[in-house]
Amino acid sequence: MSAPTVTAPAPPRSRSAKDVARAVFKRQETGLLGVIILLGFVVSLLNSNFLRTDNLYNVLQTVVVVGVIAVGQTFVLIAKEIDLSVGSVLALSAVTAGSVYGSGANPWIAMLAGIAVGGVCGLLVGTVVVIGRVSSFIVTLGMLSIARGLTQLVTGGLPQSMPSELSFIGQGRVFGGVPVSVIIFIVLVLLGQLLLTRTVFGLRVTAIGDNDAAARTGGIPVGRTRILTFVLIGLLAGLAGIIFSTQVGVAEAQAGTGYELDVIAAAVIGGASLSGGRGSIIGAFLGACLLGVLRNAFILLALSPFLQQLSIGLVIVLAALFDQGRQGNLRHLSPAALRQRFLSGR
């Protein structure tokens, strides 16, 4: 009797350069980068000042505050939640730092106190969302008003002075003119991307957003992980408050008003799905940059600010539609589906 023939497993197929290139071009970040480059090229043709080094640094510096919070918002959206309170938490963190410094505390202690307040706000929101089983939309909408009201109580409506020792955070420049705040932003983006894609926490956040029931069955602490995402965005909102207040020199009660919309826009444009389970920190960075380039273009070209708001709104809607199309939720709008519905009379 002959011995059975054993077939060796086929060696794993190595990815060719063509496969790698195709995968790269399919990523939303690549398309978003292409849009930014194309938009920048068009604006530079219309106004040569756009490509000046100081203007490009200015664009990056204007998106830092929104971009820093967008890093945290991406984690929250991936976990299938949302945070509308970030603008108010930013202001509360900033005025807390200013008030603590005004009471005679060390500038660095004041800064840490401001950031900690943001983390506490996130902890409170996450706890209510998880334990109270209340929609994060409602809870963060409430926190938006609570934090803004506390800001008014702390300041009495008056601006708070920020420590001069911290002014380098918002106004300092290194390496021949690169703003310190931009370096902080880029470092946070890289750390955020590593946290999302290379750590247990990041993988848990993605699993929860994709299917929280399956994640719970698999032993993932769903509630604790969701709370941590809100703590993370709270801490980043606190840091953004410090950056913003050191940029302008004072902490104001109205700081950050309306920022929540820009933060969500940057995250969604960057590929974060409102349905949860998907998102990219690099994408959020590029989304914030696209908003910054758009605003800078309108200023350089002396266009109406109302048209600016309209264009940003259109970009958000188009990004959301693109996300739905990527998930296959727009098949009913395909020519074949529309023709079938027309023929069937439905």
TrEMBL record:
UniProt feature coiled coil, ranges: none
Membrane topology: Multi-pass membrane protein
Keyword field: Cell membrane, Membrane, Transmembrane, Transmembrane helix
Subcellular location: Cell membrane
Transmembrane segments: 32-50, 56-77, 108-130, 137-154, 174-196, 227-244, 264-291, 298-322
Chief location of this protein within or outside the cell: membrane
Pfam families given in the database record: BPD_transp_2
Name by which UniProt lists this protein: Ribose ABC transporter permease
Species in which this protein is naturally found: Dactylosporangium maewongense
